[in-house]
Every structure is written in structure tokens, then in C-alpha cells.
């Protein structure tokens, strides 16, 4: 479903954003302004193509403003290609030519389509030089540190708009390097709202790669393709594809309510929230006589100390024992459990794992507990399937417990 654009602009109180007839006096509805946030690289024509496509949807949208995230080289191309006078357009810039074409077609552009060459319109990704502490503009995105800087920058831009209830955001992944589009998608997934949109513009060949093509109704006569064939811009087909995304912000209200932080920190925190939510519903079957556990159909064999520790955790959880505050606090409880478990080993079956040295040696340091927990995590990760659903429930700093509902733990 396409969310409606702003019904009125402040400069044109009776003009609709969709180009339909204005409402009767006294019945106007003030809707949030639409911002088009786009990533671009060396082909800034994706901006004119996207704006044209938005205006020619079944429910047309004319954005209140356009904000572009790009590199220093991308800014130069925008300034040259969109805001440089064009002989083809009789000395007018391609951007103003687009505005005129939309106005001639009956679309309300007055007070809308705010865009220019200021730093508020074209926002260049910056990074910090760790050696000097000085900020610098990225000329391109090529290294892992460049990607990290781009992710943090894009998250900041997205959050600036989605935290404003008066703004409806349309994000475009049509331009720039693939990494930029992927990062923008991730930012919308983490911070976007159900009413926001993510789009990609599709242009048919050969116009997609034809120089000086900006939109189908552009004046100036035929264009020349790369193989010197004349092309009529009016025959170009531009389609706008909505890219589905799942807005996860409601799941992570606690994290998104904090300062933006870094992209990677937000990813880590949100991933942990997902794991915790999954762990609350995970079913665990653990055997006493075999070093085997089953996590919702995924079986994992554990070493004696690992199995002893997990069996201790599961038993404490089923018996309603309190959560301990640290690994050090758990040493006595684990060692007491170890001694009791060793007593249950069958006397005449020395192949039983409860006769192993690991069970008969004292579990007397918190380091032994830490190593066992870490080893269990590694085995869960390598086992695949549903095994890693158990990982968030395992003990961690500040908590020695198995965070699973007792009804979902089966000890056989």
C-alpha cells in the first residue's frame, strides 16, 4: 500500500500533492511532509528518474524535499550533471527542467521538491582519521573502515527523519555502490516505521546507460545511444519498485530510544534482543545417562564437563533455584551438583560418562565454569539447525542461570 504524500504545502494551502483537485475549503487535511532520502554515486540521473516515477504512480507523490547521501566524488557529479547549465535544455539545468516538466503536467511543485547543492541537501559521508582525530569526506567507499563510516552516517540520516512524526520517509536504494543500498536497507529495517517506504527505480535499456537521459518527457530532441542510434526519450519506461522491509523498531524500543551510537553496536544489541526472544520459547531436552541434548530437533553431543554444567543449570531452573549473580558465586553450587551426580553413576558400568575423570574432579574455579560455557556456545554454533537458539539462555556476565521457561525443559 502506498502511503499518501503531504496533502498541502505551507506555500500552497489548497494544492494537493497528488495533482488531484483540491479539497473544499475547511476540509483540508494536513499530512506529514514526504522526504526522499537517496543514496547516489556516479549516476545522479537516478534522482530525476525516481522523482519522475513517484509523480507518475497511480497515487502520485511529489516530495517536499530531497536529501542525498553520497561521496565527495558523487557530490561533484550531482553539481555537474543536475545543476550545471545544459545546452540540450537551452542553458537550463536538468533539475529545473524536471521541475518545469512536472509543473506543466499539472503536478504541484511550488513549495515542494526542495533540493540544491548545499550541505543540507547533499550530505557527504565523513569518517574520522584515527591518527589525527580529524574528520574527512570520503571520496569513495572501498575499505572496511569506509563501509563502517558509511553505515554510521546513513543510520544517523535515517534516524533524523524517522524520529520526526511530521515526516513520511521514502528511501531510494537506486544509486551508489551496492554496499550503500544494502546499508540503507539495513537502516530502514532497524529504524524505519511501517509508514515509510523503500524504493528502487527501474529504467529500460538502452536508456539506463544513455548519457543525458534524465526523464521521459525531457525536451531537447533525440538522444544518442552508446552505439550512436537516435533515441526518443518519450519511449523510455521508468518503473518504481517498492522494496519490502520489516520495520523492527518496535521490537527494539529500548535500544532505539537511546542515542544513535554506531551502526555495529545497534546491530549487536538488536541481534541479542532477537536471540533472547528466541531463547524464551526454545525447548530443551537433556539426558542424564547420555551426554546428549536436543534443542527442538537438533541434537548435540557434549563433553562431560559441558554436560555436567548444563545439567546443573537445567536442574536448578526446574527446581526454582534463584539466579546467581556471577560465575564465582556458582562454583560451590556446581561442585555440589557434580558430587551428587557422580553418586548416580551405575556401579558396574564404568563406560557411563558419570564415571569420567571430568566428573570426579572438583569443579572448583569460576574459570572452569567459564571455559565450559564458552565451549558449549561453540558447539551450539557449529551444530547448526536450532542449536544456537539455546545460546542466549546460557549464563553470561552478571547472571548464572539457564533462561528458559521451566515447562520447556525436559530432563530424561
Per-chain topology:
Blueprint: E1 33-39, H1 45-55, E2 65-70, H2 72-81, H3 94-104, E3 122-124, E4 126-128, E5 135-137, H4 144-162, E6 167-172, H5 178-191, E7 197-203, E8 223-224, E9 230-231, E10 238-242, H6 253-256, H7 263-279, E11 284-286, E12 292-295, E13 298-301, H8 304-318, H9 327-342, H10 357-360, H11 366-383, E14 409-411
Parallel strand pairs: 1-2, 1-6, 2-3, 6-7, 11-14
Antiparallel strand pairs: 4-5, 7-10, 8-9, 11-12, 12-13
Helix pairs in contact: 4-5, 8-11, 9-11
Describe the protein.
The protein has 412 residues and is an alpha/beta fold. The chain has 11 helices and 14 strands. Helix 5 (178-191) links the parallel strand 6 (167-172) and strand 7. Helix 4 (144-162) crosses helix 5 and helix 9 (327-342) packs across helix 11 (366-383). The longest helix is centred in the middle third of the chain and has 19 residues, at 144-162. The chain is elongated, with a radius of gyration of 30 Å. It starts with 32 loop residues before the first strand and ends with a strand. Mean pLDDT is 87; it is low at 1-31.
Rg over CA atoms, rounded to whole Å, is 30 Å
How many helix segments? 11
Proportion in helices: 25-40%
Overall mean confidence score, pLDDT: 87
Succession of helices and strands? EHEHHEEEHEHEEEEHHEEEHHHHE
How many beta-strand elements? 14
Helical/strand content category: alpha/beta
- In the predicted model, the low-confidence regions spanning at least 5 consecutive residues are 1-31
Q: Give the biggest beta sheet.
A: 6 strands, mixed
Task: Report the portion of residues in β strands.
Answer: 5-15%
Amino acid at each position: 500500500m502506498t502511503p499518501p504524500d503531504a496533502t498541502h504545502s505551507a506555500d500552497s494551502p489548497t494544492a494537493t500533492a497528488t495533482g488531484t483537485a483540491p479539497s473544499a475549503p475547511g476540509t483540508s487535511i494536513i499530512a506529514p511532509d514526504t522526504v526522499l532520502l537517496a543514496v547516489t554515486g556516479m549516476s545522479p540521473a537516478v534522482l530525476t528518474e525516481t522523482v519522475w516515477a513517484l509523480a507518475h504512480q497511480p497515487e502520485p507523490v511529489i516530495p517536499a524535499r530531497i536529501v542525498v547521501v553520497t561521496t565527495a566524488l558523487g557530490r561533484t557529479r550531482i553539481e555537474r550533471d543536475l545543476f550545471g547549465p545544459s545546452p540540450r535544455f537551452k542553458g537550463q539545468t536538468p533539475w529545473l527542467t524536471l521541475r518545469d516538466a512536472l509543473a506543466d503536467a499539472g503536478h504541484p511543485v511550488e513549495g515542494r521538491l526542495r533540493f540544491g547543492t548545499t550541505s543540507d541537501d547533499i550530505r557527504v559521508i565523513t569518517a574520522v582519521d584515527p591518527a589525527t582525530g580529524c574528520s574527512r569526506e570520503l571520496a569513495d567507499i572501498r575499505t572496511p573502515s569506509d563501509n563502517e563510516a558509511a553505515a554510521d552516517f546513513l543510520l544517523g540520516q535515517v534516524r533524523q527523519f524517522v524520529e520526526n512524526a511530521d515526516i513520511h520517509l521514502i528511501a531510494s536504494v537506486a544509486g551508489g555502490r551496492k554496499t550503500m543500498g544494502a546499508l540503507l536497507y539495513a537502516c530502514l529495517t532497524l529504524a524505519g516505521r511501517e509508514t515509510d517506504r523503500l524504493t528502487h527505480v527501474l529504467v529500460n535499456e538502452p536508456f539506463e546507460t544513455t548519457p543525458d537521459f534524465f526523464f521521459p518527457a525531457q525536451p531537447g530532441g533525440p538522444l544518442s545511444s552508446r552505439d550512436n542510434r537516435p533515441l526518443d526519450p518519450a519511449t523510455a519506461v521508468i518503473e518504481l519498485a517498492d522494496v519490502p522491509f520489516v520495520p523492527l523498531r518496535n521490537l527494539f524500543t529500548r535500544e532505539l530510544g537511546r542515542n544513535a551510537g554506531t551502526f555495529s553496536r545497534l546491530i549487536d544489541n538488536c541481534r541479542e534482543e532477537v536471540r533472547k526472544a528466541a531463547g524464551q520459547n526454545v525447548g530443551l531436552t537433556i539426558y542424564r545417562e547420555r551426554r546428549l541434548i536436543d534443542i527442538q530437533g537438533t541434537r548435540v553431543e557434549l563433553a562431560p564437563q559441558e554436560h555436567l554444567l548444563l545439567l546443573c543449570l537445567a536442574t536448578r531452573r526446574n527446581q526454582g533455584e534463584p539466579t546467581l549473580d556471577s560465575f564465582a558465586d556458582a562454583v560451590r553450587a556446581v561442585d555440589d551438583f557434580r558430587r551428587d551426580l557422580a553418586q548416580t553413576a551405575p556401579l558396574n558400568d564404568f563406560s557411563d560418562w558419570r564415571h569420567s575423570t571430568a566428573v570426579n574432579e572438583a569443579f572448583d574455579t569460576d574459570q572452569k565454569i567459564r571455559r565450559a560455557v564458552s565451549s558449549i556456545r561453540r558447539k551450539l554454533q557449529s551444530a547448526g539447525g536450532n542449536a544456537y537458539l539455546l545460546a542466549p539462555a546460557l549464563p553470561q556476565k552478571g547472571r548464572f542461570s539457564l533462561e528458559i521457561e521451566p515447562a520447556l525443559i525436559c530432563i530424561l
